[in-house]
Amino acid sequence: MEENKYLCPECGAQMYETYDKPALNLICPKCGCKIATTRWEKIDLDVTDYEISIIQESNPSMDHIKIVSKILAKNFLQTKEALISGCVIFKGKAIEVKKYKAILDKNEIIYKINPDFPY
User: Fold this and answer.
1) Backbone phi and psi for residue 65, each to the nearest 5 degrees, phi listed first
2) pLDDT tens track for 20-29
3) Which fold does the domain 44-114 belong to in CATH?
4) Which of 2-6, 13-17, 80-84, 107-111 has the lowest mean pLDDT?
């Protein structure tokens, strides 16, 4: 739970918030009053279609092939060829792109996202 600036309408105590996307819950620790609303992050409302492209690798490692294979949903040989030639490995919305971006970053796979990805 996070502290915030909201005060309980019943007793005036400072409320705590919990965020369970997209539900924002405000809870009073003193009297138990609860308020629920929604809070959307900018990434959740982004309707842009993004593309993740892999930059060519002349000799891709086994780890890179395995990781990209899961994203592409292709077999080992198809994925190896895709890494050697460079290709688009995913097209989709920002929330999904962010997930794949994190995987690629963690595994030091070089890629490009079009259009520019602000998240």
Assistant:
1) -65, -45
2) 888 889 999 9
3) Ribosomal Protein L30; Chain: A, (3.30.1390)
4) 2-6
Amino acid in the structure at residue 118: P
- What is the rounded CA–CA span in Å between residue 96 and residue 82? 21
Cα–Cα dist 68/54, whole Å: 9
pTM over 0.90: no
Determine which helix (DSSP H) or strand (DSSP E) holds 113, and give its type and residue range.
strand 111-114
Locate the domains of the chain by residue range: 2-39, 44-114
Picking from 108, 58, 107, 102, the residue whose alpha carbon sits closest to that of residue 83 is: 58
Q: In the numeric block, which tokens belong to residue 50?
A: 């993004």
- Measured CA distances, 38 to 20, 23, 118 (Å): 9, 5, 23
